[in-house]
Amino acid sequence: MSSFRLFRIVLLAVWLASALRPVGAAAEPKTIVFFGDSLTFGLGLEDPGAEAYPALIAQKIAAAQLPWRVVNAGLSGDTTAGGLRRINWVLQRPIDCFVLTLGANDGLRGIAPNLTHENLRGIIAQVRAKDPSALIVLAGMRLPEIMGADYARDFAAVFPAVAKEEHVPLIPFLLEGVGGRPELNGPDSIHPNAAGHRIVAETVWRTLQPLLASGPAW
Q1: For strand 68-74 and strand 97-100, is the pairing parallel, antiparallel, or unpaired?
Q2: 184: which of 27, 38, 159, 191 lies 20 to 30 Å off by Cα?
Q3: Is residue 23 part of a domain?
Q4: Which residues are designated catalytic?
Q5: Is 158 helix (H, G, I), strand (E, B) or coil?
């Protein structure tokens, strides 16, 4: 079974389960989708469903008693081009907040930054076409200079440029305080371990919490 097919089955199961609500239940919470790659999926964790940063964000939302539910739409190995190809499937269900965290695999594969830029804008355009009122948040990514100083600089510049052009909030660096620290990453030195995901969750929450709490005024 392909990873994309497995992703569709799991995501559909999550959404169907959330839709099975008894008659007379309280108003259904809004949906926040984390759309990313293995960093979002939680590759390498013992229990991604509980330890990956989207699950930790869900815990923070519950503790704050905010009316949101979280869907982890991370797909290991995905690039911005892959995200652009699968976004319409994800948009079959209503999305109130869309957190776009793709790009790391583009950088690791040396994809031209202008293509990453174009793909990110394309994904955002598709989300807006489906629901112009959806809150969209973009997470930035950086690379070590071992990929080449010029390339790393041009790659990192893509994310603030897209955020500015599309007028969306930016999480400056998804792996802030985690990238390059062996004690916060798994054996591959790329994917955060459980402790690393806790820091990623804090980084994401700093940007996300005030947006979710403000309601439709965004």
Answers
A1: unpaired
A2: 159
A3: no
A4: 38, 188, 191
A5: helix
Q: What is the CATH number of the domain that holds 191?
A: 3.40.50.1110
- The rounded distance, in Å, linking the Cα atoms of 122 and 54 is 23
Strands (E), 42-94: 68-74
Q: What is the pLDDT of residues 107-151, one digit of tens each?
A: 999 999 999 999 999 999 999 999 999 999 999 999 988 889 999
**Residue 143 φ/ψ, nearest 5 degrees:** -125, 155
d(CA 79, CA 51): 23
Amino acid at 198: R
Beta strands 97-100 and 30-36 are parallel
Q: Which residues contact 101 (CB under 8 A, 6 or more apart)?
A: 34, 35, 36, 37, 39, 40, 74, 139, 174
The single-letter code of the amino acid at 152 is: A
Taking each helix axis from N to C terminus, what angle separates 3-19 and 80-90, rounded to the nearest 10 degrees?
30
Task: Report the candidate in 129, 53, 135 with the shortest Cα–Cα distance to residue 96.
Answer: 135
| CB of 129 closer than 8 Å to CB of 147 | no
**3-class DSSP assignment, residue 100:** strand
Query: pTM (2 decimals)?
Result: 0.87
